[in-house]
């Protein structure tokens, strides 16, 4: 659970209507960047994330306080967002492979500023991030989705397996999770390792 999630959940459990904005402000950017990597269109990403937050609000309205307090909010929001994205792509017949805009003025490649990096370090990290995103963009769609969730969104294998409704994939290497092959057919040369941060 992210730091601060317990505070957000406590507020949502006691006063959903007035506390929901904090949940949105905490997760909006992350979810939008995730969806933007999939669809490539800022407007489509905004629409999908907005719909996901609407669905999340209505779901929370029906939950008792103890269920809200026990919620793993981050993977739960990604699962809702993923569902909205899948519905959206089915309705709009979007292409399965969307070229990712990695130009210098691409707004969605900018990570959230945390204020802890020196300028040189921030520049180098941004360059590495752009290179990694360009490489991930060359992957087939199923790999790109899993790699994006694990390496860019820091979700665990279990959380990714839950999002894709693939409980047998929990703990599988990313390449196996992307292909649905948790039976060990992945060879070590296909396993994607987490880059150093």
Give a description of the structure.
The structure is a single chain. With about 200 residues, the chain is mainly alpha-helical. It has 9 helices and no strands. The longest helix is centred in the N-terminal third of the chain and has 24 residues, at about 15-40. Mean pLDDT is about 75; it is low at about 175-180 and about 180-195.
Distance between the termini: 20 Å
**Helical coverage, percent range:** 55-70%
User: Given the structure, what is the number of helices?
Assistant: 9
Number of strands: 0
Report the C-alpha radius of gyration, rounded. Answer: 17 Å
Strand content of the residues, in percent? under 5%
In sequence order, what are the helices and strands, one letter per element?
A: HHHHHHHHH
From the structure above, extract its key features.
197 residues, mainly alpha, 63% helix, globular, disordered C terminus
């Amino acid at each position: 659970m992210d730091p601060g999630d317990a505070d957000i959940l406590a507020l949502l459990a006691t006063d959903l209507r007035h506390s929901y904005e904090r949940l949105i402000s905490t997760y909006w950017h992350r979810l939008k960047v995730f969806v933007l990597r999939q669809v490539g269109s800022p407007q489509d990403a905004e629409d999908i994330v907005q719909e996901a937050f609407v669905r999340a609000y209505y779901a929370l309205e029906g939950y008792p306080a103890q269920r809200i307090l026990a919620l793993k909010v981050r993977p739960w929001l990604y699962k809702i967002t993923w569902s909205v994205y899948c519905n959206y792509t089915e309705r709009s017949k979007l292409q399965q492979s969307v070229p990712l805009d990695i130009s210098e003025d691409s707004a969605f490649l900018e990570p959230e500023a945390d204020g802890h990096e020196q300028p040189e370090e921030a520049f180098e990290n941004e360059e590495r991030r752009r290179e990694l995103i360009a490489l991930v963009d060359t992957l087939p769609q199923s790999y790109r989705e899993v790699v994006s969730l694990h390496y860019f969104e820091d979700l665990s294998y279990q959380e990714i397996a839950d999002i894709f409704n693939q409980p047998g994939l929990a703990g599988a290497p990313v390449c196996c999770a992307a292909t649905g092959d948790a039976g060990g057919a992945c060879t070590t040369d296909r396993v994607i390792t987490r880059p150093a941060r």
